[in-house]
Write a structure and sequence with these properties.
Layout lengths: L1 H9 L13 H15 L5 H17 L1 H7 L1 H21 L3 H12 L8 H18 L3 H9 L10 H20 L3 H18 L9 H26 L4 H22 L5 H20 L7 H13 L1 H4 L12 H18 L2 H17 L3 H19 L12 H4 L1 H13 L6 H106 L5 H25 L9 E4 H10 L8 E4 L5 E4 L1 H17 L5 E8 L6 E8 L19 E2 L5 E2 L2 H16 L5 E7 L3 E10 L2
Parallel strand pairs: 2-4
Antiparallel strand pairs: 1-3, 3-9, 4-5, 5-9, 6-7, 8-9
Helix pairs in contact: 1-3, 2-3, 2-5, 3-5, 4-5, 5-6, 5-7, 6-7, 7-8, 7-9, 8-9, 9-10, 9-11, 10-11, 11-12, 11-13, 12-13, 12-14, 13-16, 16-17, 17-18, 17-20, 18-20, 20-21, 21-22, 22-25, 23-24, 24-25
Length: 710
């Protein structure tokens, strides 16, 4: 038939007379695609033939169509490939379905219906992921579907309707717990909002599919609210909605001349489930009239629906339930849908086992097992599902094997052990895939919650930032003023302290010399010596003032050789006791203020000469042993020395410094030296310091370290 169809269509090939008018050849392609769409559930194999014929015609004249009618070519190419993918999905041939979907994904060119066809490809792909129990992958694919095409034609609405159906089935049959409940509610609300003027129904076939999905979803919600959430009245509410959707579907079938076996079988299975729920839950007895209405529709159209069993109003016993299930099973057998056949056999056996009829359940379970085995062994060439079918039915296989064990279908221990092993294998695969799905939903739930929290946090941060920015600007201005006032106050206090210290030391150190100069009987030689010392004290005072006051002598950093400083200091030193003054060779390079170093060294040497009557005063320099980045300068004398308990008071202005002979002074020169070291420590490398080693009657060593030039 396929070859004849292709031959007839090939005779219609003509060139296009005008860009806006379709040629007979193009009309044939479009007609074949429409036929494939219309036959998708009535006769899946015929639908596949139509789509395959359209594809072959497109390939046959691809060069001409791409050059002159590229939009038409790619639109119909994607349409044909999607029909092939959907038909192969229904026939459980996932290998061929995947091949067609990959071809759609690889079309880089832009064409009018590209977003719709891509959405349809993702929906079909999601359906296959669900069968493979990769629910998390299905969810990711559905999240890519926008279904907001600018041209709201039949194809666009069909894509949107299929999107909702797939979401409902994903959460009806492939998920459990709170995610199932929340996602079902969300999808139901979206459908009710979008179902304006019955746009999502598209055609009768899609209406049956959508009503069936809504019936199943409401039935699942009734189960959840009844057994898990314990929300009073909610189960009754959803049970009623389930009946209403099933009634709409059957009424539509009643008015329609042709009904597909696939749609009718699905609706009958749902009806059997509703009857079973009513018999198990007396809360649903109030809906007996609604169920009677459904039975009346079927009874009046028994010939059309193929009903060959007794239907009596008000009788909802197990026999009716099983007759309906067996009727649905026969319909699935006619359309040769492998997945639905095994699912139907499993459902019938489950109901028999629940009713305690183990013997009745066994034939259906054994048939299902043998059917799976024949498919997986590729023993039946009429069933095109051999490639990955064993992977697509793990959920059903799990039900079949546990059913075989529960129904005691064999008394052979080896067979039972084998069935149990197969059940464990399928159960483990199911557990692994459901674990991934659970983790995915947990992460998605956490991600949503985190995004919500982050949004609130972000808004809170913005508000807080604005508030803090306002406060910061205000207080920064106030703080800046306070800081300037404090700094000015500190400077004033330092000036006062320096002046008071300077005056105190100046008065103390100058008093003895002034007394010598005021006496008439003092020899001129002593007066001259006192005058020289008075001049030194005055110079020290002036230097202190220049250095220590805030606006005094600036600190000038340079690199210099210590030998130059030693030479300069030696020129201005007076040696009243004529002791041996030694300057050791010091080629070291030092980083600091050369002028201040000279002042400090001159004060230290003068201080040493003052208290050394015999022996020597030696000035030397070397690398600091503890840190080679510093130079250690030492002024050593053989004078009277300083008691150990007085060493800590050498650089304090409030203490008198006494040598071993009890002669005391305020040590203005030592204070000046300490201040100069502090300036170097602040202005150069941290670590500059001054310290004293002394032993009574043996002498004193004053050390200080300055930065070495690197």
């Amino acid at each position: 038939m396929r070859k004849i169809l292709l031959a007839l269509i090939s005779l219609l090939v003509v060139s296009c007379a005008h860009d806006d008018v379709l040629s007979d050849y193009q009309i044939s392609i479009k007609h074949l695609n429409n036929q494939a769409f219309n036959e998708r559930l009535y006769n899946t194999k015929l639908s596949l033939q139509y789509a395959d014929s359209a594809l072959n015609l497109l390939y046959k004249d691809s060069v001409n169509l791409i050059d002159n009618h590229s939009d038409f070519y790619y639109d119909n190419l994607a349409r044909a490939l999607n029909s092939i993918a959907y038909d192969n999905f229904l026939l459980s041939d996932f290998e061929k379905a995947n091949k067609s979907l990959n071809q759609i994904y690889k079309i880089d060119e832009s064409y009018p219906n590209k977003d719709v066809e891509t959405n349809i490809a993702n929906i079909i792909n999601a359906k296959m992921r669900m069968r493979l129990r990769a629910s998390w992958e299905a969810d990711e694919l559905l999240k890519k579907c926008t279904c907001n095409h600018k041209i709201h034609d039949t194809l666009c609405y069909w894509a949107k309707s299929q999107y909702y159906v797939t979401k409902l089935f994903l959460n009806c049959f492939y998920r459990d717990g709170k995610y199932q409940y929340n996602e079902l509610l969300k999808t139901l609300n979206e459908i009710e909002q979008d179902n304006v003027n019955q746009q999502l129904m598209v055609d009768n076939t899609q209406a049956y599919t959508l009503y069936y999905a809504l019936t199943e979803a409401c039935q699942i919600l009734a189960h959840i609210t009844n057994f898990y959430l314990n929300e009073e009245g909610k189960n009754v509410f959803y049970y009623k909605k389930s009946i209403d959707y099933l009634t709409k579907s059957l009424e539509l079938m009643n008015y329609n001349q042709i009904v597909s076996n696939y749609d009718l079988a699905n609706n009958l299975q749902t009806l059997a489930g509703l009857i079973n729920d009513k018999n198990r839950n007396h809360d649903y007895d109030v809906f007996e009239d609604d169920l009677n209405h459904i039975l009346l529709i079927i009874k009046k159209n028994s010939e059309k629906f193929g009903v060959k069993y007794q239907i009596s109003p008000g009788v909802f016993d197990n026999d009716l339930k099983m007759n309906i299930l067996l009727h649905a099973d026969s319909l699935f057998m006619e359309i040769r849908n492998p997945y639905q056949i095994i699912a139907s056999k499993s459902m019938i056996s489950d109901y028999y086992i629940r009713d305690g009829k183990l013997e009745e359940a066994r034939p259906y379970l054994i048939f299902a097992k043998n059917f799976m085995d024949s498919i997986n062994a590729n023993e039946n060439p009429d069933i095109p599902a051999a490639y990955k079918f064993k992977n697509t039915t793990s959920k059903m296989a799990e039900r079949v094997y546990i059913g075989l064990i529960r129904s005691q279908a064999s008394d052979n221990p080896e067979i039972l052990t084998n069935w149990f092993s197969m059940y464990q294998s399928e159960s483990f695969k199911a557990f692994e895939k459901e674990k991934y799905d659970f983790n995915y939903m947990e992460l998605r739930s956490v991600d949503k919650e985190n995004k919500k929290k982050m949004t609130y946090l972000f808004l809170s941060i913005i508000l807080l930032f604005i508030a803090f920015a306002t406060i910061y600007v205000f207080f920064r201005y106030a703080h800046r003023n306070n800081r300037l006032l404090k700094k000015q106050k500190q400077l004033d206090l330092e000036r006062i302290a320096n002046v008071e210290t300077c005056l105190s030391i100046f008065r103390h150190d100058m008093s003895p010399y002034i007394m010598f100069l005021q006496r008439d009987n003092v020899p001129d030689e002593i007066k001259h010596d006192a005058l020289q010392k008075l001049i030194v004290t005055l110079n020290n005072t002036m230097r202190w003032i220049n250095i220590s006051t805030p606006n005094g002598l600036p600190f000038k950093k340079t690199s210099f050789v210590l030998n130059d400083v030693f030479e300069q200091v030696a020129k201005g030193i007076t040696n009243p006791n004529k002791v041996n003054l030694i300057f050791c060779d010091a080629p070291c390079l030092v980083w600091g203020d050369k002028n201040l170093v000279e002042i400090m060294l001159r004060n230290l040497i003068n201080n040493a000469l003052r208290y050394t009557n015999k022996g020597f005063v030696k000035v030397s320099a070397k690398k600091y042993e503890k840190d080679k980045n510093f130079i250690q300068i030492t002024v050593e004398d053989t004078g009277c020395g300083i008691p150990k308990e007085r060493l800590d008071e050498l650089f304090r202005s409030d203490k008198l410094i006494e040598n071993s002979n009890g002669v005391g002074h305020h040590g203005f020169g030592l204070m000046l030296c300490a201040y100069i070291i502090k300036k170097h420590d602040d202005e150069t490398r941290r670590g500059c310091k001054i310290w004293v080693e002394s032993e009574v009657n043996k002498g004193t060593k004053i050390h200080f370290i300055l930065c070495a030039t690197i």
